[in-house]
Amino acid sequence: MQERPVGNDAVVLVSVDFGEPDYQESLQELRQLAATAGLNIVATLEGKRSSPDAKMFIGSGKADELKALLATSDSKLAAFNHDLSPSQQRNLERFLQARVVDRTGLILDIFAQRAQTFEGKLQVELAQLEHLSTRLVRGWTHLERQKGGIGVRGGPGETQLELDRRMLRVRVKQLKERLAKLKQQRGMQRKARKRSNLMTVSLVGYTNAGKSTLFNRLTQSGVYAADQLFATLDTTSRKVYLHDANPIVLSDTVGFIKHLPTTLIEAFGATLEEAAQADLLLHVVDVASSNRDSQIAQVNKVLNEIGASKVPQILVLNQIDKLDMPADTQRNEYGSICTISLSAKTGEGIEYLKQALVEHQQLLKRQSTEESAFV
């Protein structure tokens, strides 16, 4: 299926329906990922299977179709909407004579483009290397050569493959040590905020739900915000001054997505820890999305994985301007605001959110006073 004129970064998308209920949503996300990565989608190959083919994931028939599509579209890149095993990726590249990237590889490429801070770049590099470590195979001529010598050059008779693996392990260790130091620094900063009695709030949500727009609205800052996946990658924190209340520290975090690679969750542990250690989470949802329920579930799944499932949460239904909905609030059985409908773009309903923040701040003060009295 032809989609756009051929460009310098022409890509053919490949997606297989294994009977998942969210197949179309996942395929649409793949298109958004490709566009975000700066690729020009020239064709999409779809198919149905009960299970992946062990050798080439899509089977020999679809592999032939893909090879023909690549040839007719003059593309040298195929992007799969799935995670491929190292052997499947290698077999496909040999057969197609083209580069093959899976969903994780595509997301990693976007993250590499977007990382701006020193820590963000380290986190992306770590995730990329850990993804690459399983894909170091005897597939290229330079891996056939034998290396002699000592030290960096490797031991007697050490193959280039073994040398590559050893150098990769050394670099991964270095990155983990650096990130561990940065994590300690973050911990010290959080302790300083706790001593200052500053409430910490983290924005979480599905990618492209409008977190950065809401962050800018509340903090009057200029954090990059755009209608694309992973517009914000590095965590940013700012103070928010509330009427007749102490200021709070608000953090904007990376957006979540279905099938977020485990390597990314692990690599960004230090950044995502801001959410796990927060006093309150603002779970931002694109209320206009037809998939909002599944997106909410996906975000809560990741929050559980990073140990943030027990942090108090307010559901922020953003982008009401798209549906001509009124700004509103809902309270739970304890009388606390649990859901807010607003528009970060127009500002409608922002006062409700500030009210909820003040109320939660007062709740924390009461709890702290009660704990002190008990001790």
The CATH first-level class of the largest domain comes to Alpha Beta
Instruction: List the uncertain runs.
Output: 1-8, 138-157
Q: Considering the protein shown, what is the CATH homologous superfamily of the largest domain? A: P-loop containing nucleotide triphosphate hydrolases
Count the strands? 13
Beta-strand share of residues = 15-25%
Radius of gyration: 24 Å
Number of helices: 11
Quaternary arrangement of the chains shown? Answer: single chain
Structural class: alpha/beta
| CATH architecture descriptor name of the largest domain | 3-Layer(aba) Sandwich
Q: Kindly report the average pLDDT value.
A: 82
Q: Would you mind describing this structure in some detail?
A:
The protein is α/β, with parallel strands linked by helices. The chain folds into two domains: 10-101, Rossmann fold (3-Layer(aba) Sandwich); 190-374, Rossmann fold (3-Layer(aba) Sandwich), CATH 3.40.50.300. 44% of the residues lie in helices and 18% in strands. It has eleven helices and 13 strands. It has helices at residues 23-36, 59-73, 86-96, 103-114, 118-133, 160-195, 211-219, 262-267, 269-276, 292-305, 350-374, and strands at 10-17, 40-48, 77-80, 99-101, 146-147, 158-159, 199-205, 236-240, 248-252, 280-286, 313-318, 328-331, 337-341. A seven-stranded mixed β-sheet has the order 8-9-7-10-11-13-12, sandwiched between helices. A four-stranded parallel β-sheet has the order 2-1-3-4, sandwiched between helices. Strands 5-6 form a two-stranded antiparallel ribbon. α1 runs parallel beside α4, α4 packs antiparallel against α5 (118-133) and α5 packs antiparallel against α6. The chain is globular, with a radius of gyration of 24 Å.
